[in-house]
Amino acid sequence: MDFQVVAYDFGIKHNILRRLASYGCKITVVPSTWPAADTMKMKPDRVLFSNGPGDPSAVPYAVEISAQLCDGMKFYTFLH
Fold first, then answer.
1. What is the dihedral of CA 52, 54, 58, 63, to 10 degrees?
2. Which pTM was predicted?
3. pLDDT means over runs of 10, the chain (80 residues)
4. Euclidean distance between the first and final Cα of the chain, in Å?
5. How far apart (Å, rounded) are the C-alpha atoms in residues 54 and 23?
6. CA distance 7 to 31
7. Based on the structure, what is the number of domains in the chain?
8. Domain encompassing residue 24
9. Residues 71 and 40: beta-carbon distance below 8 Å
10. What are the Glutamine amidotransferase domain coordinates in residue numbering (predicted)?
């Protein structure tokens, strides 16, 4: 059974994708503006928001998308 991950690309590091794939994850990378409803239709096991520009004001839509996905979804977070 594949572990499905939808990765929102805010400036994703390709090593993150390689590492997830090495653990058997099937990854679908979507643009940072990808609608939450479309992600929910994909029924992923997890959602990943990649690292990004650093200034949240540059991506105000991310807050709305993440809020819509929070109900019942599990997220990976990478902090550095």
1. 70
2. 0.81
3. 88 92 96 94 90 78 84 62
4. 31
5. 28
6. 8
7. 1
8. 3-76
9. no
10. 7-70
